[in-house]
Amino acid sequence: MICMRNRDSTTDRISRSTLRMLERERQKMGVKSLDMVIRELVVRKRKGVLEEVFGIDRGRVKPFTEEDRGEDRG
To answer: Residue ranges of the domains in the chain?
Structure first.
């Protein structure tokens, strides 16, 4: 296990294989820190979940019209 420490944050233990994965991702992304890698991965995951939940009918759903109401207001 590896301990990671950042100047103004916390320490956490990760396995050496996870560290290697994060380092490879850091190089691919071209960012300076593992913290930035982790943040970007979290953002991507959140976007993916939101897209999965709310994007299922994207492009197929149209705005409601008065005819869609189905009630008599007169």
So the answer is: 2-56
